[in-house]
Amino acid sequence: MAPQFEMKVSDLIAEDIEAYLHQHQHKSLLRFLTCGSVDDGKSTLIGRLLYDSKMIFEDQLAALEADSKKVGTQGGDIDFALLVDGLSAEREQGITIDVAYRFFSTDKRKFIVADTPGHEQYTRNMVTGASTADAAIILIDARKGVLTQTRRHSYLVSLLGIRHVVLAINKMDLVEFSQARFDEILADYRAFAAQIGITEFTAIPMSALKGENITEPSSKMSWYDGPPLLRWLEEAPVEDDLQARPFRMPVQWVNRPDLDFRGFSGLVASGVIRPGDRIKALPSGRESTVARIVTKGGDLPEAVAGLSVTLTLNDEIDISRGDVIALASQPPEVADQFETTIVWFDDEPLLPGRPYLMKLGARTVTAQVAEPKYKVNVNTLEKLAATRLELNEIGVCNLSLSAPIAFDPYVDNKDLGGFILIDRLSNRTIGAGMLHFALRRSQNIHWQAMDVDKAARASAMGHKGRVIWFTGLSGSGKSTIANLLEKRLHAEGRHTYVLDGDNVRHGLNRDLGFTDADRVENIRRVAEVSRLMVDAGLIVLVSFISPFRAERQLARERVEAGEFVEVFVDTPLAEAEKRDVKGLYAKARAGELKNFTGIDSPYEAPESPEIRIDTTAMTPEDAAEMIYGWLDAN
Fold this sequence. Notes:
This protein is an alpha/beta fold. The chain is 29% helix and 27% strand. The chain folds into four domains: 9-237, P-loop containing nucleotide triphosphate hydrolases (Rossmann fold, 3-Layer(aba) Sandwich), CATH 3.40.50; 242-327, Elongation Factor Tu (Ef-tu), domain 3; 333-442, Elongation Factor Tu (Ef-tu), domain 3; 454-633, 3-Layer(aba) Sandwich (Rossmann fold). It is globular, with a radius of gyration of 30 Å.
């Protein structure tokens, strides 16, 4: 079938290439995604848009025709889905697995389209594709109507704040272009959409395969008087929406090319800024006025959402990468505790209390996630109790940060309300989230200054406080060595205290079990107590298996540099199991103890401890003496 849509730009390309390039450069850009149930025709729709807008080169078209005959599903006719489904596994199974991005343009606008997977196990892929989208096309097979996957993707579209939505009721050719069937599906979807906050959408009946209502109105559905899909995409009002919001510019770079110039560079996320406008830098709250808006092509009279610029100010105020510049009259909020929705991406579960890195814009801080309030069944929208989040699960959780950040709720500003979570050790992106609001307690709780500080207490004690953190397998000898070391320090008049894993579980941590999540919370509490003891001037000896590097790193960061000494009591598993003073290994081997470190729960050995004790070659007494010598020397 020959494409019905004729591109006017082709004439301009032939007549005046410079005019064409200028026009193309100044077109607006719309990012949109397609989503819906498996086999609703998402990839076919995108392929049809590329084909009808003449964005396929001759060699691509030849390859498409050959592939259609070889692995296509249209009996030798062109299978437009093959333009998008590039992975061999996708072609073999006839499904979309990864997010595929494609670019095309018309006279009026440029487009980047994301083809997202329909299967539930690829929820994280769909969320990734939707995170930058301005609009969404939700496809429905006219034969099947509203399905579970339709509801799931509609919920995710609503969750991610996509305001411009098309309900594409596809494959109308297979229901004889029936208006009654279209109206039936539309009524079902409208009732569901109202439950999840999608109050406005445009429903278009179409056949992506046959090209009906894609680029031109369909003569076979004359009862439909709305726009074809491409016209809707060309006219969707996206940029004006961003410009109408309060001005926000996260600072990406402090621009200092020489001693006479200091500017702050970044992408304007929303709003408009002009020279003379009074601004506020956050989270510091310092104010100034804009002197110039600098670009490579010269100064601008104003900067709007979507432009990358450098602002110079009339006052020398301290602004760093990750800060946010806003109009002083309309500043964002600043807080360090939030309610959030988190989508978990990683094979390893989210563990409440574990420290992660949280990146929002150019700002990166340490974050801890509390136990989820609930997780959402994305198929039924049911709220379920949860203690952690697994791969592809979505939950509502409180989040605490190591430092306050400037933010807007995600529903108001994606750039200042959307974040990712990063594993601190591997640097993997393990989750994405949306800020709802700041917790009231973050505004009400302030650090109370005291006249007697750490230095004064250390002076009174006659020594500085310090954490000596013993880690190793059960039975390695941690408690024995810690006890001997404390006796030596105490005999010399040092002020000490031992926090032993078993002893602490009788009181402070008696409510915790031995799951990974409980182990994380166990160490988090002990790390906080250790910090308080160091602040009091004590030498605190901590004897815990503490199997995870992330939590030991958390404990290290709770005190100042040089105050944390990690002692790895290195005993091979076979040796520790042979000792088995408490009989725990025998019970674990018999299946009577679950989640036992070294047997069915991992131990992550330290990579660079301050002190390593080889207990196969050293007695406990020698180990204590070695640690004492290290402390004395340092």
